Amino acid sequence: MRALRWHGKHDIRCDNHIPDPSIEDPRDAIVKVSSCAICGSDLHLYDGFMPGMQHGDIMGHEFMGEVMEVGSANKKLKVGDRVVVPFTIVCGECDQCRRGNFSVCERTNRNKDIADKVFGHTTAGLYGYTHLTGGYAGGQAEFVRVPYADVGPVVIPEGLTDEQVLFLGDILPTGWQAAAQCDIQPTDTVAVWGAGPVGQFAVRSAVMMGAEQVICIDNVPERLSMARAGGAVTIDFDDESVLERLAELTQGRGPEKCIDSVGMEAHAARSLDSLYDRAKQALMLETDRPHVLREMIYVCRPAGIISIPGVYGGLIDKIPFGAAMNKGLTFRMGQTHVNRWTDDLLRRIQEGQIDPSFVITHSVGLEQGPEMYKTFRDKHDGCIKVVLKP
Amino acid sequence: MSIPRQVTRPDHSARSLARGLGWFSVGLGVAQLLAPRQVAGFIGMPGSEGAVRACGLREIATGVGLLLADDPKPWVYGRIGGDALDLAGLGWSIEHGHEPANAAIAAGAVAGITLLDLGCAKGLDAERVPSTEWDYGDRSGFPEAAQNMRGRAEPEFAAARAEPNGYPQQLH
Ligand SMILES: NC(=O)c1ccc[n+]([C@@H]2O[C@H](COP(=O)([O-])OP(=O)(O)OC[C@H]3O[C@@H](n4cnc5c(N)ncnc54)[C@H](O)[C@@H]3O)[C@@H](O)[C@H]2O)c1
Ligand SMILES: [Zn+2]
Ligand SMILES: [Zn+2]
Hints:
The complex is a heterodimer of chains A (390) and B (172). Chain A has helices at residues 40-46, 95-98, 112-119, 162-165, 171-180, 197-208, 221-229, 242-249, 272-282, 291-299, 321-326, 338-350, 369-378, and strands spanning 3-6, 12-15, 29-38, 57-58, 62-70, 82-85, 88-89, 125-126, 143-146, 154-155, 189-193, 213-218, 233-236, 257-260, 305-308, 330-333, 362-365, 386-389. Chain A is α/β, with parallel strands linked by helices and 390 residues long. Chain A has two domains: 3-170 and 336-389, Alpha-Beta Complex (Quinone Oxidoreductase, Chain A, domain 1), CATH 3.90.180; 172-333, 3-Layer(aba) Sandwich (Rossmann fold), CATH 3.40.50.720. In chain A, strands 3, 5, 6, 9, 10, 17 and 18 form a seven-stranded mixed β-sheet that branches. In chain A, α6 (197-208) links the parallel β11 (189-193) and β12. In chain A, α5 (171-180) packs across α6 (197-208). The longest helix of chain A is centred in the C-terminal third of the chain and has 13 residues, at 338-350. The radius of gyration of chain A is 20 Å and the shape is globular. The relative contact order of chain A is 0.15. The mean pLDDT of chain A is 94. Chain B starts with a strand and ends in a 10-residue tail after the last helix. In chain B, α3 packs antiparallel against α4 (73-96). Chain B is built from seven helices and two strands; from the N terminus they run βαααααβαα. With 172 residues, chain B is mostly helical. Chain B has one domain. In chain B, strands 1-2 form a two-stranded antiparallel ribbon. At the A-B interface, α5, α6, α7 and α12 of A face α1, β2, α6 and α7 of B. The complex binds nicotinamide-adenine-dinucleotide and zinc ion (ZN) (2 copies). The site of one zinc ion (ZN) has 6 residues of chain A, from loops.
């Protein structure tokens, strides 16, 4: 089969003649991918900021398709089912899964012992996302082996296009969970950093959960235009001071809820701290650039909530923790517990409350994947979300 | 859907770098004007105070230009020219002056700054190339105007589920 494989930093190739996956466990299924996407999280691998990738690993964790083969113990799926596969692999039986904390499933990470050492405890296995989370082959491929396929995959009813449902597996529930974690009150201002795909869904989720005002911060004009279409007031951090504009828009109180949908590769064109982070990251003294976190802690209204869907991988520095503690802020974060949200969100898509396909700007064949990583990362050609068709 | 248009955008990081270089020029120029003897002594060219003062004036002029001009580009090219002159002078001093080690250190510093100047010029130059800007103002994803969607989801329900262990139903 063909698949996009990681060969090193900034080196992703569409390789042919990769052996097709096969059933390895009676609970498995094999899915023939009809659509997959490139996620902001993939960029952290592309840019070499997440450790734990190996030469030849198959990329991708946002995918859907048709079930081709089902293991003997799998009672949920049958051949021909159309499924969206959540990026978190969940067993459905461990204590965390039973509590709905799916992204920290205790059993699906094949490299549990490494993760136990690095993070203290293992987290769930993920597709195409480093050997720290199991080293599972990813979904930017023609075929994928789906382990624990009797739990995670979401069966899609007739009448919905790939484009409408594909994002159920990652970025739609991620934006939704980011807003849900904010416990939004009708008087709240919710500020969303980052107008990438996750930020777009966070904006719309915050609107649907009834925030009085939603503000979105980025420096890419077309992404900001899309955020405005979804109901946000926008701040371009190249043109305006984020701190001043936020104060203005909240009469000096600061936003009650702050969402970081940027993560560890934050840009900051004109601050000293960002130069400091870049230097430290280059010298490997710090792995992540937490510019957005610092800004959020500083502007957030006391007793507010900081919700962090943006991915961080390791160590961060110079976090104003005194401000956070004394202001009584609440932090909520994590990889998304995708299966907590999928039923509800699928219903909303069916009812027409939201059509997630608005975010797609590029739809091309798998073989164009490697150049699309660059287009997406550099935000060229108006790119916001790329869908690949294997 | 979504109509593109051609725009040229300012390169904000090149422009803020230009401002930084402007302040650097002013600072260096003031030092050269006020302490020409020390500067000339350090680089091993005593007696060239006049030349150092002239360099100082040149630095201040380009610095002020960089800080005040709407278009910093010509001033950055000016800095690059100045860098070349400085490097030539320091090169002479490394070979013939009294303090070749100091002159070499100074030349290294100037070379570093020259790289910044070149990068800045390159960034400013690329501003001329028009880029395509897309307006996605028609991509709301909602069936109705965004303000009508406000509060459509039950926030208490969503928030309760976002609690750790916040998924009450049995999965199976
Ligand atoms: N928690 C999860 O389960 C989960 C799932 C999917 C994605 N993510 C993470 O969410 C983040 C965003 O993903 P994406 O797909 O939207 O990626 P993206 O890279 O397209 O979006 C990031 C956006 O942040 C903007 N940005 C950079 N610096 C900024 C700053 N200082 N202030 C404001 N905006 C800034 C960029 O211009 C860009 O538009 C990534 O870190 C990704 O790994 C997390
Ligand atoms: Zn993702
Ligand atoms: Zn589990």
